[in-house]
Amino acid sequence: SESEIFAYQYGSDIIVEGEGELQVFDALGRMALSQRVNGNERITMPQTGVYILRIVGDKIKVQKIIINK
Hints:
Blueprint: E1 7-10, E2 13-26, E3 31-44, E4 49-56, E5 60-67
Antiparallel strand pairs: 1-2, 2-3, 2-4, 4-5
């Protein structure tokens, strides 16, 4: 299976590139955010930590990202 990076940290924000429903989960599996993304979106995370990002669109993409401020 192909690993594709669709999100990266920029300061205290996450830049997400993709189309579909973005779901962000914290390290305990709780949903921290759910919103529609279309293209490039900047998401501000209020806390540092480990997050799992999932985009549900034509394909389902999952990526882990660590936010350090």
